[in-house]
Automatic annotation (TrEMBL):
It comes from the Bacteria. It comes from Maribacter hydrothermalis. Residues 61-287 form the Xylose isomerase-like TIM barrel domain. InterPro entries: IolE/XylAMocC-like, Xyl_isomerase-like_sf, Xyl_isomerase-like_TIM-brl. This is Xylose isomerase-like TIM barrel domain-containing protein.
Length: 288
């Protein structure tokens, strides 16, 4: 039983016995002091094999673990393991997700599908009930001019997405923190070139391996983010993903500044071997 269910049932039982005065005055203050007070979801890409074979079964399994949100990958953009889902409309996929008790307000898209079939992708996103259409990758460039051109293209996409009532996001990887143009990090250039009114950021914590802290980025760019992907890495081998809370990341520091960054929801995304990573991660986050 989840803590909130226990408290609800327990206090209801005491009320029926007329002994509510036995409840400590600070009980509810204590239970509401959780650091992680935003929804916790998972990204479907790492479970793509299971999802391709049994979409609703996989979602039900994750819902039972306690995950509230699912972030999709555009079936037409990702094909492969997601190809079985292309037979469903966005409306049908939304109903399948709703039936599990989970919510889906975000999906990853490829740059090519957004540039070449934006109207169709917006229609799919609206059917699915999305709030966030996130570009998973693709702004990387060989020259500064090319990088700026890619940002201008995404701004134009973001304007149409905004007119359709949604927000465009961009999901970073390590590459944006590894490369520079004229001694300026690509990530900082992106933040200059992307219009904050049209494109928000989805922060991936993978860069903790490079010593980059989410709290530093959120404080540097307040209000520029909509969500985050969570990974953690072994203290002895930074190439090895492990459950959230068992590695090198300072999650109290991360979540203390996430709201300032504008983060509305977080998605656990990690290696599924061993399979209990997702269970251990949600347990840690729910108790942080």
């Amino acid at each position: 039983m989840k803590r909130r269910q226990f408290i609800s049932k327990g206090t209801a039982g005491m009320a029926s016995l007329g002994i509510m005065t036995a409840v400590p005055n600070n009980l509810f203050a204590i239970t509401n002091s959780k650091l992680v007070n935003i929804p916790i979801g998972f990204q479907t890409y790492v479970l793509r094999e299971e999802i391709g074979k049994d979409f609703t079964g996989t979602l039900n399994k994750m819902a039972k673990l306690g995950y509230e949100y699912v972030e999709m990958c555009s079936p037409k953009g990702y094909m492969g393991s997601f190809e079985p889902l292309t037979k469903y409309s966005g409306v049908e996929l939304k109903q399948m997700i709703d039936d599990t008790g989970m919510k889906c307000n975000s999906s990853h898209f490829q740059f090519s599908e957004l540039k070449e079939n934006l109207d169709d992708r917006i229609d799919f996103a609206q059917q699915l009930g999305l709030e966030h259409m996130v570009l998973a990758f693709g702004l990387n460039a060989a020259t500064l001019d090319e990088l700026k051109k890619n940002c201008a293209d995404l701004n134009a996409i973001g304007e149409k997405v905004k007119d359709a009532g949604m927000i465009t996001g961009f999901h970073n990887h390590a590459i944006e923190f590894e490369h520079k143009f004229h001694d300026k990090l690509v990530y900082d250039i992106l933040m200059e070139e992307l219009d904050p009114e049209l494109v928000k950021m989805q922060y991936q914590t993978e860069v903790i391996k490079m010593g980059v802290k989410g709290s530093e980025i959120f404080n540097k760019y307040p209000g520029r983010f909509i969500s985050a992907h969570l990974q953690d890495y072994s203290k002895t081998d930074k190439t090895k993903e492990i459950a959230i809370g068992q590695g090198i990341s300072d999650w109290k520091d991360f979540f203390a500044s996430a709201k300032k960054g504008g983060v509305e929801v977080v998605y656990v995304e990690m290696d599924t071997n061993p399979p209990n990573h997702f269970e251990d991660s949600i347990t840690f986050l729910e108790n942080l």
